[in-house]
Amino acid sequence: MPGSPGGTLPRHLRRTATSHPPVADAELIMVAVQVERLVAARRARPEAPHLSPRELSALLVLRADGPLSVGALARRLGVSLPTASMLSGRLNRGGLVERREDDSNRRRTLVAVTAASEEAVDRLLAPRLDSVRRALARLSAADRIALIHGLRRLSE
Fold first, then answer.
1. Distance CA 5, CA 75 (A)
2. What mean pLDDT do residues 14-26 have?
3. Residue with the larger pLDDT of the pair 88 and 65
4. Do 92 and 98 touch, CB atoms closer than 8 A?
5. Is 40 left (phi over 0), alpha (psi -120 to 50) or beta?
């Protein structure tokens, strides 16, 4: 609504009352445009057309922190347990991950990148990691830390 504190911006871009100083609407618009540009650029350069973005994210998490239980993978990806189970099943059928029973808890399934596919997974993930590294390299160390902290807070 014109004349309201947020002007004609969508509600999610309007200023909110917090203990922090308000962010100017122009700054919010600039950030939203930059994020959209980065997302659009990622869509224009698919690393592995046969894998979905969610599958690539799962591989990234598993390569960095695996093996993980299906539940832990679901939490890390922010998806439901059935979604993580189906996702790990597709990756398993593709030969990229293995699913096995947890020796310490037979009701739990662990998922890990297979030893035979580690190199292929690294090649699939390299363009994604390289683009993030290039973007982060433009920031100072303090800005990188602030960005990571902010993203963690937003994802809580």
1. 36
2. 52
3. 88
4. yes
5. alpha
Give the pLDDT confidence of 99-120 residue by residue, as tens digits.
999 888 888 899 999 888 888 8
Residue 103's SS3 state is coil
The identity of residue 146, as a single letter, is A
- Residue 111 and residue 121 in contact, taking contact as beta carbons nearer than 8 Å: no
Beta strand spans in the chain (E): 68-69, 97-102, 105-113
CA distances from 124 to 46, 91, 101, 107, 140 (A): 10, 13, 27, 31, 28
- What is the value of pTM for the model shown? 0.58
User: What values do phi and psi take at 29, rounded to 5?
Assistant: -65, -45
User: What tokens were used for 153?
Assistant: 């807070």
- In this structure, how many other beta carbons lie within 10 angstroms of the beta carbon of residue 118? 13
Alpha helices (H) in the chain, listed in sequence order = 25-44, 53-65, 70-77, 81-93, 118-137, 141-155
Class level of CATH domain 51-156: mainly alpha
Nearest of 90, 94, 86 to residue 70 by alpha carbon: 86
Query: How far is the C-alpha of 35 from the C-alpha of 5, rounded, in Å?
Result: 23
